[in-house]
Amino acid sequence: MNEYMKLAKELADNNLKTNDGGPFGACIVKDGKIIGIGSNHVLANNDPTAHAEVMAIRDACKNIGSYDLSGCELYTSCYPCPMCISAIIWSNITKIYYGNTKEDAENIGFRDKFIYDTISKINNNEDSILDLKCIDREETIKSFNDYKEKQDKTIY
User: Fold this and answer.
1) I need a surface site. Which of 44, 63, 105, 142 has the fewest CB within 10 A?
2) What is the CB neighbour count within 10 angstroms for residue 37?
3) Could you say which residues of the chain have pLDDT below 50?
4) Looking at residue 2, what is its pLDDT?
């Protein structure tokens, strides 16, 4: 078994004992060195965003002192959910190795498919569980316009 996937699996398996969250684990590797690890801590932290991949990203960023994980690889025990895929993209990780599939996650009670379906509905302007309405843009756009002109900004 791949050594990094083995660690991701061990982190997932540990949650079966601790009940910190679902059976998910992840690690981030750069140049052959583990720079971040995470397991699902949704229940322990009362935080629906505390997925293994997000926790590993937070750990890696803290450990290297940067929000940019370009050149890193993510090993995760399961195909990342939509939120985690977004976090992975924001962190600039482009290589992901996963163990279980999103269908496997659905088979044990996780609702990733529901979220994918909801995103599809939103993107197609169909009815969804979310009520999204744009309001007060004429005021909120001012901050964006100021940012656009700002000389000392950092784009991430």
Assistant:
1) 142
2) 21
3) none
4) 97
**Spatial distance between the Cα atoms of 16 and 20, rounded to a whole number of angstroms:** 8
Question: What is residue 7's predicted lDDT score, i.e. its pLDDT?
Answer: 98
Express each pLDDT in 59-70 by its tens digit.
999 999 999 999
Q: Is 98 left (phi over 0), alpha (psi -120 to 50) or beta?
A: beta
> Which is catalytic among the residues 10, 53, 103, 106?
53
Q: What is the DSSP string of the chain?
A: --HHHHHHHHHHHHHHHH-SSSS-EEEEEETTEEEEEEE--HHHHT-TT--HHHHHHHHHHHHHT-S--TTEEEEEEEPPPHHHHHHHHHTT--EEEEEE-HHHHHHTT--HHHHHHHHHHHHTT---S-------HHHHHHHHHHHHH-TT----
**Which residues have a Cβ under 8 Å from the Cβ of 30 and sit 6 or more positions away?**
60, 64, 69, 71, 72, 73
Percent of the chain at pLDDT above 70? 100
